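Teaching assistant here, posting this on the class forum so everyone can see the example we discussed in section. The complex has two components, and the goal was to see what a joint structure prediction looks like when all of them are supplied at once.
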Amino acid sequence: MQVEKFYYDNKIVKWFAMATAIWGIVGMLAGLYAAIQLYAPGTAFSFAPTTFGRVRPVHTNAVIFAFVGNCIFTGVYYSLQRLCKARMYSDKLSKLHFWGWQGIIVVAAVTLLLGYTTGKEYAELEWPVDIAITLVWIIFGINMFGTIIKRRERHLYVAIWFYIATWVTVALLHIVNSVEIPVSFFKSYSWYAGVQDALVQWWYGHNAVAFFLTTPILGLMYYFLPKAANRPVYSYRLSIIHFWALIFLYIWAGPHHLLYTALPDWAQSLGTVFSIMLLLPSWGGMLNGLFTLRGAWDKVREDPVLKFFVVAITCYGMATFEGPLLSLKSVNAISHFTDWTIAHVHIGGLGWNGFMAFGMLYWLVPRMWGTSLYSKKLATNHFWLGTIGIVIYAVPLYWAGFAQAQMWKTFTEEGQLKFQFLETVTHIVPMYITRSIGGTLYLIGALLMVYNLLKTAAKGYFIADEICEAAPLHKETSHAREHWHRWIEKKPMTLLVFSLIVVAIGGAIEMVPTFLVKENVPTIASVKPYTPLELQGRDIYVREGCYTCHSQMIRPFRDEVARYGEYSKAGEFVYDHPFQWGSKRTGPDLAREGGKYPDSWHYNHMMDPRIMSPGSIMPSYSWLLDNKIDTASTPAKIRAMQTMGVPYPAGYDKQANADLMTQANSIRLSLKMDKIETPKDVEIVAVIAYLQRLGKDIKAMPKEQTAKN
Amino acid sequence: MRKAVAALTVLLFTAPFVMAKGGGHAPIESSLYNPFIVTLIIIMIILLLAIGLLAHVLLGAASYYYQRQKETAQKSASSTTLKALSIIALLFVAAPSFAQDGDATVAAVQTTSSYGGLSATTFYFMTGVIAVEILVLFVLLYQLRVFLAKGKKQAEEAAGVIAYKPKPAISFWNKMNSFQPLERESQIDTGHDYDGIRELDNRLPPWWLYGFYISIIAAGIYLWRYHVSHSGPSSIEEYQIAMNEAEVQKAAYLKNSANNVDENTVKVLTAAADIEGGQKVFAQNCAACHGKAGEGVVGPNLTDDYWLHGGSIKDVFKTIKYGWPDKGMRSWKDDLSPVQIAQVASYIKSIHGTNPPNAKPQQGDLYKEEEGNKTDSVSNKATEVTKK
């Protein structure tokens, strides 16, 4: 057979690797900054772009899509070529993919800091960026499938199954969740509202964890771990069963983020049971990784790469055990809305994703530069700093979450809530401080790595095009009996379609009934659309990222009803594009904030929260006192809402600004009564209008009806 | 190290008995539904698993260490053997006592109240068990380290050995995962080769496979219980149950308590302790809107003769208890106990006429103390509001 000579493209791998390191540091810095603001709110400098509500989305987007994203591309571009015995399909597409993705990251960081956000977690980017992401993702797909099609290896290795499932599912998630109606170039509304928006968002959010942070990294593990340990993969049949089970089951589990909310009970239960079933398929990956090291454990003691991988896989095992645990309603009742969740995701993020990325980079760089690692000792130090950092990060947050939940739920014997919300916050501030120390250690470790890798590169010589030889594929002639699964491993397109079908089932079964069956969202007659001023206020609420700290979802618990008021009903959110239920209560729930405090309380509180609540960790929002409301956008916003079926009267867009001014004036007068002089057209007035509306509609309806809903 | 080991053994043996006793006294009432207990139990189980795993690794290290000795030398060094064997013996001894821990846990679950729904005894017992488990983990880790260091050193020195048989625990681990011996690996090699990566075709670990089946069955049972047979409560039913329980508890408590004060029975309290208590509550909750000295900021001045909602002790009590939500005064009945409300209302009465600086201008109607007890101008209106 004729052997062909060809070259692997290492240059694109190098670029992605550098981007991984750079964005990793940037993302971690943003995280550290956000963490510090939680105990030193003054560090936000009363400057809009540096407040927690805007920095936090920058942190999450940077570590997920910039750090882990580039890490995935690094690993895929390196391993795919070698597993297919072919150079990437097109160097041009590789370059386009690289620069397109980095461009998106830069635009994302800038727009998020400027307050352009859709207000949906991990999908905050506005619609032009969403379109750009779709295009770049398609470029990546073409490049990947082009390479697969011109491969010189008949069967696809398990790593590639994971890459394919990742590609198709992320495309599906991103497109479905990003259906939004543009109002202007950088403002859009989610097409879905309230309960439905929540379901779609958490279907997306949960599976972003599954198909962006888990499956592609498992693919990387299947390539880099056996390579680094020089051991065969433990079990082929385990790969098959855990791959299909994982992608099928994962997609259903989204509603476990919405337990005890206004989401219909049946959907919540599906989220719970599929999370339970997900445990062992998730562990399949861990077992296949750890058991691959059988007979190589002596190497783990010596090799920092394997050390990183072992801890990463262990963290993966812990996080995927904890996931189903948190999906049990009785545990979720404690953990949800607290720092427990934050600790949980950081076991996954710092442990699994971070350590896989570090291990991979330590393995790749010496090989691509044809040398050995500059300092093994430094790498080992990085490993220990990182590991200790994770422990010091996570343990205080677990403690904080648990302690705060217990304080929230404690009643005195007379039947009163024992603790004010603020007391439960100040109680855990020491844990916030400790957590940021853990994060700092982890960051220092990452900086050591950058130094070590730069030194390694400096002492080697970069092999931009690595030569390889392989025979081209010929039509299959032998018909020897094969394992049944081998046939699909020869058919990448069939594998793609099967993966798509398998992941589409769960989402469709949960979403279609929630959208179509009316009983799932019972109508409440007294719930009315927001007034134009309230709508503007709501957009400011979204812009400032208030949802990163405040929930708007009162769960049916004794303590929450006592603290916040009647528990939330599905019908209350039908005009909420997007929903703002939130996932974390760093501050109190706001679902029934309306009428709780006078207008002037809110005015003073926004100016400096510590005037009204001494010890509060909320940043000041002083710019709201001066910024003018963007009234020019009101008609377009009303029209967008009408398009989505919000029942404003026909032609209301023309009258909206007049109504807005009337309502603004009444708030100005009420502030004046309390000796506060303010123009009526400033943003604070709109925010007050929105906050004073929250949760009030339901109070206008007769008592018996409330009970029924 | 010996001392630590001895202490540990004693602890492990005594702990379950002590705890079981503590648990036994408590009334058998609230249950596994208490999420706090469930969480504690889960933490215990995870720690137990970790201990099991570590014990296994330690045994593995021990067997590895002996294997090495066997290969490298002939001489026997009885003192080290004794030490090592005692460690292994200890591990076996420890295993059954873990099982007892578990039993005791179940006993302890049957208790009630105070620490997140637990009695103090149970709470300390459970945290005690967790602490012991953590201690065991540390001791095991320490031993492992000592062992590894020793094994390395001995291997280097090629020192003396004794004959040694593989530990049964190892074969248990192998059996559990249905491991093939490494030497027979070639028999299960699939022959796949991807960029030098080979694939074995080991059997699925039985515990994994059956665990997966069980999780699927559990999922079916869950759905059946909550959505077909409806024997489990829905979210809303759970809420109603919790509210009813709370109501009963509260009523039982208030029946025997001086706290049973409401707007009809409240009297001005004059004891220094009461006024001080009221002042504390005021500083924490009221000062933000009414000013540190009650001079009025966002809310009205509380020191003058003018009142928006009546100035009698009963009116003030009612205003605090139910609030005037439309005017920006929130209700405090879920935050403050009746006695606390009475105290803060009394404190407010006590600062009448203090004329603090920066006082807000008068709001509302003039109120004179003498007529206070006779006419309660706004009481009817207020009752109406609270009913709404």
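For the discussion questions: Residues 421-459 of chain A form the longest helix (39 residues). Chain A is about 65% helix and 5% strand. Think about how each of these relates to the inputs above.
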